[in-house]
Design a protein that fits this description.
The chain is α+β, with helices and mostly antiparallel strands. It has one domain: Regulatory factor, effector binding domain (Multidrug-efflux Transporter 1 Regulator Bmrr, Chain A), CATH 3.20.80. 30% of the residues lie in helices and 32% in strands. It is built from six helices and nine strands, in the order βααβαβββααβαβββ. α3 packs across α4. The longest helix is centred in the first third of the chain and has 22 residues.
Length: 210
């Protein structure tokens, strides 16, 4: 059986430094995605729709993994990739310290051999097993090219991300970059299992040369 490990192959994107800001050019990849919005007065950790969105993304990702592993002809086994989130506020700058009007696209990278046909079959299997949950209707398989970005590993609670963001903004200013686009987080730690001070989150932001 063929083994595939995208985290190792893409180490420059999924294992950045926690000490220095890095400039990366993120190629075109395919992701399972789901859009949503945090209910007013709630945080991601307390939002029912966010919980359902996570469940749908993990569900389809593990379904596709096992379909690939058990596939006839050319079975391929691989670890499921990390959960990622694009965050923004309509008509305003996204502020990690102000949880209001937060919109998101949750996504998980899928290997290139995962086809649309496999994805649709996996979605049908999930509906048969779990019922037609509302979050399933929001899922999609789509390509995404982020392009030129800066990124850094943040270690600690999500609430303290501002310190790492400030370093990234300062780096951009000193090196002739301007930030634009959505706030991107890649969750390497499980907040339900890891101590808050040990959580690892990659912070990434699109930039362009000024």
């Amino acid at each position: 059986m063929e083994k595939l490990d995208l985290r190792k192959e893409l180490k420059y994107l999924y294992a950045p430094s926690a000490k220095v800001v890095q400039v990366v050019d993120v190629p075109d990849f395919q992701f399972t995605m789901l859009d949503g919005e945090i209910e007013e007065g709630m945080m991601p950790g307390t939002s029912p729709s966010f919980r359902d969105a996570m469940g749908a993304l993990y569900g389809i990702s593990y379904t596709l993994k096992f379909m690939s592993k058990l596939g006839k002809g050319n079975p391929i086994d691989y670890p499921v990739m990390a959960l990622e989130g694009l965050w923004w506020v309509e008509g305003a700058e996204f502020d990690i310290t102000r949880p209001s009007g937060w919109k998101y696209t949750l996504m998980m990278m899928q290997p290139e051999h995962i086809s649309m046909e496999m994805y649709l079959e996996g979605l049908a299997q999930m509906r048969k097993k779990r019922g037609d949950q509302p979050a399933f209707a929001k899922l999609r398989l789509e390509r995404f090219r982020e392009g030129l970005c800066i990124q850094m590993m943040h270690i600690g609670p999500y609430a303290t991300e501002m310190g790492t963001i400030d370093k990234m903004v300062a780096f951009a200013g000193k090196n002739g970059y301007k930030l634009y686009g959505k706030h991107h987080e890649i969750y390497l730690g499980d907040p339900t299992k890891a101590a808050p001070e040990k959580l690892k989150t990659i912070l990434r932001h699109q930039v362009r040369k000024v």
